[in-house]
Specification:
There is one protein chain. The chain contains two helices and nine strands. By secondary structure, the protein is an alpha+beta fold. It has one domain. Strands 1-2-3-4-5-6-7-8 form an eight-stranded antiparallel beta barrel.
């Protein structure tokens, strides 16, 4: 009985702590080119696969997973990260406040998230991982 509890505890410990280990393998900078930006504005492309450029040598392959338009001023787009464990998502929130568009992003997996700052150059969105430690999210 004790060995069964030890195995169960070990398995739970490994699962609960695999989130931060995963983040070490994620790109520090992600580029979304203007040709792919349509997915941020419409929900017609749910399920489409997209390649995002990164500073690393391997591009980030994603699939548009969910699109939520909360109201006219705010929407959230979620991408599945292909090639990463199930449940790993890139989340981008787009909000209009005082006639300015504000982008927020994070990569979420198993209750943890890494925050990304987002800048817009006109031809692409650039997501840069912040220096913060992994945050716990619901």
């Amino acid at each position: 009985m004790n060995s069964l509890l030890l195995i169960l505890f070990t398995a739970l410990f490994q699962v609960n702590h695999s989130g931060p280990k995963l983040f070490d393998a994620l790109p520090n900078v992600i580029h979304i080119e203007a040709s792919n930006m349509g997915v941020l504005l419409t929900n017609e492309n749910v399920g489409s696969k997209i390649t995002m450029n990164t500073q690393e040598t391997v591009p980030l392959k994603v699939e548009l997973f969910n699109y939520t338009k909360w109201n006219e001023e705010e929407k959230t787009v979620a991408y599945k990260l292909l090639g990463y464990p199930e449940g790993t998502h890139l989340i981008i929130n787009i909000a209009i406040r005082n006639n300015q568009t504000i982008y927020r992003g994070y990569i979420k997996h198993m209750g943890y998230a890494d925050a990304y700052t987002i800048s817009f150059t006109g031809s692409e969105l650039i997501l840069t991982k912040t220096e913060l430690e992994h945050i716990v999210v619901e």
